[in-house]
Amino acid sequence: MELALVRRASIIALLAYSNAASAQVSPTFVPQSSRNGEEGNAIKGPLGQRCLDIEAAARAQSFDPAMFDHVVSIKNECNKLISVKLCYANSDHCRSFIVRPYQRVDTILGAMKGITIFRYTLTQKLA
């Protein structure tokens, strides 16, 4: 009787652990909505629209789902060569590159374990 109670308690504990572990699974793709630092220096096209279309997301790595790449995609929708400096907010960890007219650049700003939300600053100028 006592052995049966111990087994039952072990099974219940195992089920509780597996449910808790499955509840902590992170999403594989977390879109970012903030585009800090681009409003004041945005290069505009001939009709007044912004030249750069920017999307950012945290993407889980396939070999370690707890590790997230911070991916930023920048598409130039104008006929201008634009130099871009992309940094984590309040950091000197940056990437600099040129976005050619009507081209798209995808870059990994960094990777962090368990960090699905990140902030960045973007400065742009004509190249």
Features:
1 helix, alpha+beta, Immunoglobulin-like, three-stranded antiparallel beta sheet, 127 residues, single chain, four-stranded antiparallel beta sheet, disordered N terminus
Task: Please tell me about this protein's structure.
This protein has 127 residues and is an alpha+beta fold. The chain has a single domain, classed as Immunoglobulin-like, CATH 2.60.40. Helix content is 17%, strand content 42%. It contains one helix and seven strands; from the N terminus they run H-E-E-E-E-E-E-E. It has one helix at 2-23; strands spanning 29-32, 52-60, 67-76, 82-88, 94-99, 104-113, 120-126. It has a four-stranded antiparallel beta sheet, with no helix packed on it. The chain is elongated and about 45 Å long.
Walk me through the topology.
Elements (H helix, E strand, L loop, with lengths): L1 H22 L5 E4 L19 E9 L6 E10 L5 E7 L5 E6 L4 E10 L6 E7 L1
What top-tier CATH class fits best? Mainly Beta
Overall 3D geometry? elongated
Major sheet description: 4 strands, antiparallel
Counted by DSSP, the helix tally is 1
Overall structural domain count: 1
DSSP, total strands: 7
CATH architecture title:
Sandwich
Q: How would you spell out the order of helices and strands? A: HEEEEEEE
Q: State the CATH topology.
A: Immunoglobulin-like
End-to-end distance, in Å? Answer: 80 Å
Strand order, sheet with most strands? 1-2-3-6
Using only C-alpha atoms, the radius of gyration works out to: 22 Å
